């Protein structure tokens, strides 16, 4: 049974999220207007859409690898809570020394639906045994 993502346009000409490729994990998100991310700066790019997520999922706004590799642009923040019905904003950091120009309807990120759990937090005195234990931060070698 295909999962349904309900999308509401907040601007008449907003572009709906779409799979760039049938085997993509995420739906591309589109800029609602011309915009830019200043060199070494950040911007919140409006998408002109709001969504209703399928039960048990949250939305993760993720990088388009092409923008990272070619232009040093990286998505930050990126958690769309279930129940959030406001406009989806894409937070972009520009790690380069050149302003990054965005044209209306450019693809600026992708939205991935992920399952999540809402645990009851329980304080304990000891954690269960594991092979790794407390070894982290490169402990398995370079
Ligand atoms: O990249 C993002 C991140 C967040 N949001 C929206 C949807 C999300 O549900 C809401 C709140 O985000 P988050 O929970 O990360 O923000 P917070 O800083 O913890 O603030 P809040 O007190 O609103 O939860 O903002 C976006 O549109 N784009």
Automatic annotation (TrEMBL):
Keywords: Hydrolase, Magnesium, Metal-binding, Nucleotide metabolism
Family: Belongs to the dUTPase family.
Gene3D superfamilies, per database record: 2.70.40.10
EC number per UniProt: 3.6.1.23
Catalytic activity as recorded in UniProt: dUTP + H2O = dUMP + diphosphate + H(+)
Residue span, dUTPase-like domain: 14-141
Superkingdom per UniProt: Eukaryota
A Pfam family assignment: dUTPase
Matching CDD domains: trimeric_dUTPase
Gene behind the chain: g9444
Protein name: Deoxyuridine 5'-triphosphate nucleotidohydrolase
Primary role: Involved in nucleotide metabolism via production of dUMP, the immediate precursor of thymidine nucleotides, and decreases the intracellular concentration of dUTP so that uracil cannot be incorporated into DNA.
Pathways involved: Pyrimidine metabolism; dUMP biosynthesis; dUMP from dCTP (dUTP route): step 2/2
InterPro entries (alphabetical): dUTPase, dUTPase-like, dUTPase-like_sf, dUTPase_trimeric
Enzymatic class: hydrolase
Cofactor dependence: Mg(2+)
């Amino acid at each position: 049974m295909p999962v349904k993502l309900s999308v509401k346009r907040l601007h008449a000409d907003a572009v709906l999220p779409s799979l760039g490729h049938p085997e993509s994990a995420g739906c591309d998100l589109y800029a609602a207007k011309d915009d830019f991310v200043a060199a070494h700066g950040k911007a919140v790019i409006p998408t002109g859409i709001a969504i209703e997520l399928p039960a048990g999922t949250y939305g993760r706004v993720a990088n388009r690898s092409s923008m990272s590799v070619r232009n040093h642009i990286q998505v930050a923040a990126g958690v769309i809570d279930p129940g959030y019905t406001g406009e989806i904003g894409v937070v972009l950091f520009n790690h380069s020394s050149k302003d990054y120009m965005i044209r209306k309807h450019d693809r600026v990120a992708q939205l991935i639906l992920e399952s999540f759990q809402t645990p009851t937090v329980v304080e304990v005195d000891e954690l269960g045994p594991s092979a790794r234990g407390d070894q982290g931060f490169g402990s398995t070698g370079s």
